[in-house]
Structures are given as C-alpha cells and as structure tokens.
Design brief:
This protein is mainly α.
Length: 143
C-alpha cells in the first residue's frame, strides 16, 4: 500500500510538472494526445500479449474482445490524433510510445508470462507520463 501511495504521488507530480512546463497554446493538445496514446498502448498490449494468468482476470476479459479490427482502429485514430495536433513531432511521439509499449510487452512477458489488468493500468500511466515528458522535451529543445 505504501509503494502504491508513493507511486500515485510521484505520477501526479510528474504529470503536473510536465504540463506546467508546456506553453499555453500546446497544453490543450497535450491533454488530448497523451491519454489517447496511452490508451493505444493498452490496446497494443492486449492484442499482442498473452494473459499471464490461465484462469483469467480483467486482462483476459479485454483480451477476448480485442481483434485485428480494434487494433487497426486504435492505431489509425491515435496516429491521426497525434499528427493532426503536432504534425511531424506527433508522428515521432506516436512512434516512441509504440516502441515503449513493445518494451513493456517484452518486460512483462519475460517476468510474469504476459499481461494482467494491473499491467494494463501501469502501462497506461507509464505511457501518459512518457508522452507528456516527450512533449515537454520537444518544446523545450526545438521551440
């Protein structure tokens, strides 16, 4: 419980600092694209990864309902959102979140044999924070 509480405080703090570092004209766009890309990473994990528990759980419920059509739709919509909001840098951001999702998939497949509902929740938070940090870095470096 203590580790979970500390994690929540750290994640909220990082999100606050990343959002606070963005210029006002970018803030709204960042608040739209970061959750979209983090949810897309969850769809990737569900589609590509086995369930860690044979008996199932929340991860299995989602796994049974994500097919190629849902994966393609999530991929197309997330890419369209990222590019329409951030042009070239949106495509870069989308690609970086996609690569990170592959890393999360490899890590949890190796460690626990697949995904669970908790893994999906962690991936969501990891990728939302990562998207905000990448956007902050882009705007501080290139603008």
């Amino acid at each position: 419980m203590t580790i979970g509480g500390i994690s929540v405080i750290l994640i909220l703090g990082i999100k606050f600092l990343a959002l606070n570092s963005l210029p006002g004209e970018v803030l709204g766009k960042a608040l739209l694209v970061s959750p979209a890309l983090s949810r897309w990473s969850m769809v990737q994990l569900i589609y590509r990864s086995p369930c860690a528990r044979p008996e199932g759980g929340l991860g299995k419920i989602f796994k049974e309902n994500v097919r190629k059509r849902e994966m393609a739709a999530a991929t197309a919509l997330s890419l369209a959102a990222a590019i329409s909001l951030f042009r070239f840098w949106g495509a870069v951001l989308w690609l970086m979140i996609g690569v990170s999702a592959l890393g999360v998939q490899a890590l949890f497949t190796r460690r626990i044999g697949g995904i669970t509902g908790d893994v999906l929740g962690a991936a969501n938070e990891i990728h939302e924070v990562l998207a905000l940090l990448i956007l902050s870095g882009i705007y501080h470096r290139f603008y």
